[in-house]
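Sequence dictates fold. Below is an illustrative record:

_____
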Amino acid sequence: MSDTHKLSREAFDRLQAEHDDLTTRGRIEIAKKIETARELGDLSENGDYHAAKEEQGKMEGRIMHLANLVENAEIVDVSADGDELAVQAGCVVSIRYEGDDDVEKYLIGSIEERREGLTVMSPGSPLGQALVGAAKGDVVPFEAPSGPLNVTVVDVEI
C-alpha cells in the first residue's frame, strides 16, 4: 500500500493535468520521434532512436509517479482554526533558529507543492514533524543531527 500524499487542490489539479497531457499528447509525440528515428536505418548505431527511447522511459517513469500521487492524494484545505493558523501541510512557515537572527521561510508539504522562491520542507522530516501543529510565537524543540535545538515560529501563512 502506498503512502497518502497531502496536496492542495491547486497542486492536485496541476498534477492531474500534467498526467493527462503526458498520457495523451506526450505519448503520441514520443511515438512519432521513435518512428522517425527508426526510418533512419540501423537501430544499433542510431543515436536519435536511443535518445527517443531514453526520453520515453523517463516520461513513462514520470507518468507512473504522477499516477501514484494523484491516486493516493489527500486534498488538504489550509485554514485557520479560529484566529490562529497552525503549521500544517500546504502552509508557509517562517522560523528563526535559536541563537540566529535570520528568519527562514519554508513551504510545508510535498515537493510537488513547490512555489517560486520557497524551499519545501516535508511534514515528515524531523523539523517538519516538530513544527506541525505549532502556531505563531511558539518555541518548538526538535532533535537536529548536531543535537537538540529550539526553533521559534515567527509567522504562519496560507
Q: What stands out?
A: The chain has a mean pLDDT of 89.
